[in-house]
Fold each of these.
Amino acid sequence: MFFCLVTSTIWAQNKQVTVSGIVKETKTNSTIPFANVVLKTATQNTFVAGTITNESGRFTLAHVKTGNYILEISSMGYTTHQENLYVGNLSNFLDVKTIELNAAISTLNEVIVTKNNNTISNKMDKKTFTVAENISQTGSSVLQVMQNLPSVTVQDGKVQLRGNDKVMVLIDGKQTGLTGFGSQSGLDNIPASAIEKIEIINNPSAKYDANGNAGIINIIYKQNKKEGFNGKVGFTSGLGALWVRKENLPSIRPQYTMTPKINPSVALNYKKNKINAFFQGDYLYTETLNKNEFVTRYYDDGDIINSQLKRNRNTHFTTLKSGFDWNMDDQNTLTISGLFGSEKIIDRGDQPFFNNDLSERRRLWQFLEDELKTTVMATATYQHKFKEPGRLLNVGFNYTFHREDEKYFYDNILSSSSGTDAFKLLSDEKVYDLNVDYTEPLKQGRIETGIKFRKRDIPTNMEFRPGQNSVIDANAGGPATYKELIPAVYGNYVFESLKWEAELGLRLEYVDLHYEVNPNHNTYKSDGYNYTQPFPNMRLAYKINDDNKISLFFNRRVDRPNEVDIRIFPKYDDAEIIKVGNPALKPQFTNSLELGYKTNWEKGNLYTALYHRFAEGTITRISSTVPGSTIIYATFQNVNTSYNSGIEMVFSQEINQLYSFNINTNAYRNQINAFTVENKYPSSHQFSAPTETIFSGNIKWNNTFHFTKKIDGQVTAIYLAPDIIPQGKIQSRYSVDLGVKKSIQNGKGELYFNATDLLNSMVPRKQIQGDGFYYTSNDYYETQVIRLGYHYKF
């Protein structure tokens, strides 16, 4: 039972701490060149490291481990200076500032300089995972890789952290059109082969945007900086939907089986003198049974409808990233890079509607969705390193253009007639980001401060072409423009002593948002909001000893409505469910508390965290009907206060050279208080819901094997408990993943094979209570995939 309540490891990170300062004479305040600088242990007074000051009186000691030391400064003609120094693991650089020597006559012994091993440290606010170590998901997408990570679950194609989908996704520390600004999108179409590592940040500091109350996921692309020309090429192929899990309802087209997956990739790097140039290209082609949901709907008047929504999807996703680093001199570096992403999606779907015993087909809905998403991003970053090590100025500018070009065609086939609905959506998103960040190292920590400015414009246009017997609202189309302006300033102070660590930050953010609606729209009018809000963060930690630490966190964050959440255009979710946005949506503010404890022992560690979040004006989607119609309208609303409380545990142990494992669990309680809201579309009507509460969680068990002949294996088991969803709940589900890889060609090549959802058991089963109806659904979409691949480094 204990192992079922703990979760996977947080790997400690190697830290190379650099200690610096400047030595001056007391009376004249002139610098003292070539003074001897020695670092000794505080307990045994033994030599650890040494150096001399340069012509400007400055010194640097690199690769210093965490611990208590005596810093000794001496020079011929001056008295020796000694002071106590504690080196922690929260900062890469410590600056002891100015050290003054008094004039004297003395002679020094010879100084010997040695090199020390890097110390291992761990911050409890962030977990970092190397994608290459996730053998069971090698060759898959980023979304599939995340399913095996601690704290993460995937539901309806969206990532959740600790049961909350309000997650901000970054690429290389920046928001992009590939993954959404302040939201998440496209993760299932980013090849894992392009990614070096993934960071999960549950308690972000003030440096990060305030959006995303559940936390931040930072996806870091691969980049090599070895001297000369080098790179990596790879190819992965696979098959999914290996057999039919549930036969179609009568009279529709076949569902996809034996779906192919193809993923070639290349990464090139050339470094010589002051230039480091890089290029990375990834292409992912997949055929997928994207949806295969069987629904039984029960209406209050006694009517029962059986339906199936089947979607066969073809996806072409191309990512190209290139740029260069120009090291102008030892203190100045300029980086220019560009990213291009193209996502082409073709969906062909069927949705039949039958009566209770399937003897009568009431309707057949067939559709074609043709969608092209294009992203172009240009980035320029300048870094200035001051003479004092660790003192940095970073200036960055980022421009993103993201286009959505979507076309939909729906054939509505009834017993006596048929018609075709069509509509086209065009959205061009332009985002300008400017960042200025400054870091100042201190003797016991550092100060970080900076400013950020964002301008974001998204003009959209929806054109409807309704056919015979259409339920589509042709008067709800037309143009709409989303405009967002966000200046922000932040400050962050980090302190570390022998027993205590502290991090105090404050981000001040101003937001001005306008949503301009087509004045001829039959329901909605232009709307928006603005606010000036502080977003503090705090971390206080006590180090019991070298192997045990306890930390307390506080964070205040916000979730601003996404542009797609406020779009005025009604859009088919299926033939009888219409999604529509709400331009009156307002931000959701969240406060969170967390208490964490971490302990290490030989070849293992345990991490435990208790957390509690409460949000005001919770944003959720409401499904309701209007009198005289069976159409369900799903509209976003600000409802009542919601709560998310739980415990996360991480346990890791290496048993021997052959076998190691990690188990992680997250158990939580979600609650949304009772509420009543007014849905304005298609006509004004109220919807009420009682308080919803559920206890849920997940368990993940990763087993890693190191066999002889350079063969590694991994088996991962995942269990997801029942959970709350808008107006209902989703039942428990589980899966088992398997992966094997072998190193060949003297370590330059690698062969791998893996299988996702080996038992084909991951089936979401939902129960939804609506206004005037309720329904149950089982989605037998594609979850089982096998892959075979090869990588070669040169």
Note: Residues 309 and 574 are 7 Å apart (CA to CA).
Amino acid sequence: MVLNKWLISLLLCIGSICYGQNTTKKTPLTEVIISLEKQFNIKFSYAVEDVATIKIDKPNTTFTLQETIDYLNSKTLLNFKALDDRYVTVSVLNKTISVCGIVLSDEKKSRLVGASVLVNNIGRSAITDENGKFSFTNIPINATLTVSYVGFESRQFSANELFSAQNNCKEIVLSTKNEELNQVLINVYLTPGLQKYLDGSTVLNTKKFGILPGLIEPDILQSVQALPGVESTNESIANINVRGGTNDQNLVLWDNIKMYHSGHFFGLISAYNPNLTNKVIVSKNGTSAEYSDGVSSTINMYTKDLVTNTFSGGAGINSISADAFLEIPITKKLELHISGRRSITDLFKSPTYTKYFDRSFQDTEINADSDQHDTSSDFYFYDYTAKLLFDLNEKHQFRVNIIGINNALDYSERLTNSNETQSKTSTLSQKNMGYGGNWKAQWNSKLSSNFITYFSRYNIDANDYRVETDQRLTEANEVQETGVKLNTYYKTNDNLNFLFGYQFNETGMLNQTTVSAPFYSSTKKDVLLNHALFSEVEYNKNNTYLRVGLRLNYFQKFEKLLVEPRINIRQKLSDQFALKLEGEFKNQSTTQIVDFEDDFLGVEKRRWVLVNDKDIPIATSKQGSFGVEFNKNKLNIEATGFYKIVDGITASNQGFYNSFQFNNANGSYTAKGLEFLANKTARQYSVWVSYTFSTNDYEFDTFTPSTFPNNVDIRHSVSLGFYYDILKNLKIAVGGIWRNGQPYTKPIDGNETVQNGNNTMVNYDSPNSENLDNFMRLDASLNYNFNLSESIKASFTAGVINATNQDNDINRYYKVNPNDSNDAIQVDNKSLGLTPNVSFRVNF
């Protein structure tokens, strides 16, 4: 670090000397103007701040007035214009200039022939010639140019960066993409901005995102649910079920930082601001050996990673929250990206907020109705991100990230009876903070590396005072994880890549409960160290794509080694047909348990815990899938069969509402099924229909019966929709979902409760032997884009969830009737009713 600082200081010093040497013969423009006013007996009209810092070579004294004006225009970024024989105006508005550049590769500085250069907003473009050169004349001084080439990272420049008074063309170096083997297979998948890669993963490109039914912005985790095999049985992004798994079995990464919390409003809104998120990669199977944890899926979010030297940003507001983001160039090599979002619900309670509030807090203390209770609640959320980008040179890039997510709820209640009025105040706070950094290095044309480090901390704290018993309950769940990873890439040729890596994780968790009367306190801390070595080869040539990897995981505390092979193959049989085969072994050392008694005010019932290899074992999964693809004339049809076994789950993390509700046991689940998707796209529209058939069964050897349907056993699920560009700037999306209702357990008819010691409990029948009514929902969105000015774009989006106001049950359970201990009361949780939302955004 000291050496780097010394080098930077030396370079700055040398640059200053060189600059001083090059400018010693130049004259301040203010002096030149005074001289010309005397020479031609004219008057220049200008703002002092526009010319104060400019120095140029003096124009030739033999020039005429017009030749002098042309010379000044060619040597400066100012606009000199003669109004008449007496007055000349000097301005920076409506200036057009000529620019040129030479596009080079970062490896051997070879000139890139055929690179694309686009002048944004005005529709002019060019490609580089045989010398890698391009040029434009008469383009606005404030124009932005995008330079791109297949296999390289695109770069953006402002026109004045490429302007040279000496007509020297600027050299533009494009960095090689490390992921060039991972080509895009389908460019438009359901809607613009959704793409599919050769390895089967799905990519959400937020910058190019169109709209999906019901959404008003590219909500990252809501958009994921449009994919076949991805469900949310309770409409919550805090409960995404991928091929029958639970939400805690999804590995969620934000710029390589593992996240333990994903939603605002207790799962109805994604906690990740999409405006600086560049792309999201979702893998259901055949995951790279680089990743472990998350036995159901991997959701990998990447923010913008390119130093553009362009100041840009945007802001928006909708019925729930307001947000803003900025991309701030500090120097040519240093840039800062920041974003922030906060709810506006404490200032304005919109109809959307009311729907979300009722949906989130139904059947809880917060939404309980009582004539004796005077209640009030204050709920808000916010999130923020910051990223510092530093390119030391063309070979070394450094990035530092921070993300913060917070949900806070204050609940107060006044209890009035015949004698007195008592009050209680309860609080609930959920936070997830993440810090990360990485160093990318291109050592030569074949060898590169990426060193990654991160720290993630998740906290949930609850304080609940119960007036009736004069009892205060406090609960805390804390997760702290530190991770280090080194990836080394070796590119043998254009078709063959190798990956070698090492990863270390230290995960600590705390669970604490205290009760004031009678006094009770419980604190449990656990720490787990995990080392991993992984290797992978990726091959892509002609009609064959192959990725084969192996990961070795060693758990130091248990002295346990897990071997995880991975495979991903796609073989193209013809121009239209292809076969794909995917398989993986994965493990997971963290899980969530569900509390029914100590339940965080009835709102949040889940706590993170670490495995102990005894009553909470390491969860392991084995999954295989085989599919066929047809792609012709932008008609994509694919069918995939899958078989997945997850072993090492616990009864306490399934959220049972049956006779096993308070039992602790280890078991497994087996999910198998078929996913089908047909998607037709064209220039103006996209139409799709998807269908998933699956069976999902638990197996717990110590239970009777030992095998029964999974809580998320959705046998049939269908979604369909279409996206249409009505006009160039007006888009609409409409779609619907139909699926079987999820399983539930009912009490035994005529014998609904049973005595267990001093407690009366619901006497349940066979577990998950009944199903809720079928779920059905229709959503729609409308988006309109327009320009407020040449550089400011705006958009208005309206969306509605459940446009038909369908009454859907998403969960059902029973509890003992407090007025009749022989009776069980049925409790139904409802989905969102008709929920409209609107947003307005500006970007510059």
Note: Residues 1-24 have pLDDT under 50 and may be disordered.
